TrEMBL record:
Species of the source: Nocardia aurea
Domain Enoyl reductase (ER): 10-358
Family according to the record: Belongs to the zinc-containing alcohol dehydrogenase family.
Upper taxonomic lineage: Bacteria, Bacillati, Actinomycetota, Actinomycetes, Mycobacteriales
The entry's keywords: Metal-binding, Oxidoreductase, Zinc
Annotated TM spans: none
PANTHER family in UniProt: GROES-LIKE ZINC-BINDING ALCOHOL DEHYDROGENASE FAMILY PROTEIN, NAD-DEPENDENT ALCOHOL DEHYDROGENASE
Gene3D superfamilies documented for this protein: Medium-chain alcohol dehydrogenases, catalytic domain (3.90.180.10), NAD(P)-binding Rossmann-like Domain (3.40.50.720)
Alphabetized PROSITE patterns for the sequence: ADH_ZINC (PS00059)
Name the UniProt record assigns to this protein: NAD(P)-dependent alcohol dehydrogenase
C-alpha cells in the first residue's frame, strides 16, 4: 500500500514528505494507521548519525488504530486503539524477567530494518523502516504484539503517544529504578519531556521533596506547576550546594535526563551519602568521575533505559494516571501536522516546545 512518511535522507537535511510503498503485514505483524507520533531526542540523534544515501523513516512514539492483523496475531483486533513502544524479542533472559528494555536483541530489533529487509520502498529504493519496531513518522506502520499496547478508544492518542518512550522513561526511572519515598529528596536534572514525566510521577507516588534543575525559567515554572517543590537554575554555580542545603545532606535520589557531563557531575555532587543517581539521557559524553567521591560517600551511579518497566503493564498504568489527572502530559505537548515536522523538530531543538507531537489527518 502507499503511505505518506517524513523521510530523513541524512545529516541535518530537512525531512521530506514522500509517498512510500509499505509491504503487507506478515503473519506476525500488525498494520497500524498512525494518528499521532511524539518526537523524541533519539529521533534527532539518529537522524544526525545516519549517513547521506541511507534514507530512514524515524519516529518511535507512535499511537494509532489497527487496520489489519496477520494470521498468527492474537489479542489485537482491527479497530483497536494502540500505543507503540520499542521492540523486544520476548524470549531472552531479560525479556523473561519482565525487563524487555534490556532485551539481548535490542539493537537489532530497534535500530531499523535496512535494505531488502525493510518494509518500505521509495520506488525501487529501500528506505530504512521499523525504527524501534515502528518508524512512526508515517501514516501507517508495521508493528507486532510485542511493541503495541491496546488502550481504551476514548483515550486521546495525541496526548498518549509519548507514553511509549519519553514518559515511561522518566516516570519509570522514578517508580521502578530509584523508587524514592516520602522521606526522600529527588533531584531531577533537565525537565524536558522525560524530566517533566519524572516530576509528575514523583508527585503521584508521594516523594518527599521533588527538585527540578534546568536552564529554562519557563520550564522550571511548568515543573513547579506540575509538582516540583523546589526549582533551581542549572546555570547557578552553586546548584549542588543549593540541593545539599535542602535537608538530608542532599538528594537521596537524582535523575539525569541531559547526558551532559557537567550536569552529571553536579548531580553526583548533589547526592547525600549513599545517594543514587540514575542516568537516562543519552549524549555524546563520556564521564570523568572522581572515584573517591563515590567511595567516600557510598554513592551509586546507574543507567536505565525505558524506565526498567514492562510497557504492557506500565503504559496502562500511565493511561490511568492520565485519566485521574495525575499525568497532565498535554501541558507539555504542542501538536503539528505531518507537513510541519521540520518546524516541530526545530522547536524541540530550540526548547520552544517540551514535547512536539506529529498528527496525521
Ligand atoms: Zn529479549
Ligand atoms: Zn525516545
Amino acid at each position: 500500500m502507499n503511505i505518506t512518511a517524513a523521510v530523513s535522507r541524512g545529516g541535518d537535511a530537512p525531512l521530506a514528505i514522500e509517498t512510500l510503498a509499505l509491504r503487507a503485514p506478515t503473519a506476525d505483524e500488525v498494520l497500524v494507521r498512525v494518528v499521532a507520533s511524539g518526537i523524541c531526542h533519539t529521533d534527532s540523534t539518529t537522524r544526525e548519525a545516519f549517513p547521506p544515501g541511507l534514507p530512514i523513516v524515524l519516529g518511535h512514539e507512535g499511537a494509532g488504530i489497527v487496520e489489519a492483523v496477520g494470521s498468527r496475531v492474537t489479542g489485537v483486533s482491527v479497530g483497536d486503539h494502540v500505543l507503540m513502544t520499542y521492540q523486544s524479542c520476548g524470549e531472552c533472559a531479560e525479556c523473561s524477567c519482565d525487563l524487555p528494555g534490556y532485551c539481548a536483541h535490542w539493537a537489532t530489533l530497534n535500530a531499523g530494518r535496512f535494505g531488502p529487509d525493510s518494509p518500505l520502498r521509495a520506488g525501487e529504493e529501500p528506505v530504512t523502516g521499523g525504527f524501534f519496531g515502528q518508524s512512526s513518522f508515517a501514516s501507517h506502520v508495521l508493528a507486532t504484539t510485542r511493541n503495541i499496547v491496546v488502550i481504551d478508544p476514548d483515550v486521546d492518542l495525541v496526548s498518549a503517544a509519548p507514553f511509549g518512550c519519553a514518559v515511561q522513561t522518566g516516570a519509570g526511572a522514578v517508580t521502578h529504578v530509584l523508587a524514592p519515598d516520602a522521606s526522600s529528596v529527588l533531584a531531577i536534572f533537565g525537565v524536558g519531556g522525560v524530566g517533566m514525566s519524572a516530576v509528575m510521577a514523583a508527585r503521584t507516588i508521594g516523594v518527599g521533596t521533588v527538585v527540578a534543575v534546568d536552564l529554562s525559567p519557563e520550564r522550571l515554572e511548568l515543573a513547579s506547576e506540575l509538582g516540583a517543590d523546589v526549582v533551581i537554575d542549572g546555570g547557578d554555580t552553586d546548584a549542588a550546594a543549593q540541593i545539599t542545603a535542602l535537608g538530608n545532606g542532599g538528594a537521596t535520589h537524582a535523575l539525569d535526563t541531559t547526558g551532559a557531563a557537567p550536569v552529571i557531575a553536579t548531580a553526583i555532587d548533589s547526592l547525600t551519602a549513599r545517594g543514587v543517581l540514575a542516568l537516562v539521557g543519552l549524549g555524546p559524553s563520556t564521564l570523568p568521575v572522581e572515584v573517591a567521591k563515590l567511595i567516600g560517600r557510598g554513592k551509586t551511579i546507574r543507567g536505565s533505559i525505558e524506565g526498567d518497566v514492562n510497557p504492557h503493564t506500565y503504559l496502562p498504568q500511565l493511561v490511568q494516571w492520565h485519566r485521574d489527572g495525575k499525568l497532565p502530559i498535554e501541558r507539555l505537548i504542542r501538536a503539528y501536522p505531518l507537513d510541519r515536522v521540520n518546524d516541530a523538530i526545530a522547536d524541540a531543538a530550540s526548547g520552544a516546545v517540551v514535547k512536539p507531537v506529529i498528527t496525521f489527518s
